[in-house]
Amino acid sequence: MKKGRFQMFKGCVGAVMILFVFGTASYAESLSEKENTFGFDSPFVSKIIKNDEGKIVSLLGVNAALGISYRVYYEPVRVNRFNPYWTTGTIAVLIPFLGIGADYLWENGFYAGVGTILLMPEAHVGFMF
After folding, report:
1. Domain count, the chain
2. What is the pLDDT of residue 32?
3. What is the pTM of this model?
């Protein structure tokens, strides 16, 4: 492995570990107490939207590409399982995108997932707080 790629790999592993620690520290008694998300994801920072029963159904926020992202889960989010979703938004405020994916959410609010944005595969991690 080239030195530059190894440095990038170490940085990514470090970022995942930091998110895991903060995700664990942000523990709430239930997901119904979570209000926001932060992650290496689209959306980068978001507001959690809940249904009338207090279950998470979507996220609305700002992405790292200077745009807006909206993620809608097909069913209310459940812990310790994959939660499929579709997403839409903008890149650089003007370029629209669509995508699909799935997030695996742990009880502490930490999540990891895979998906597509503009037909390109992506992997992401983050936490709810």
Report:
1. 1
2. 77
3. 0.76
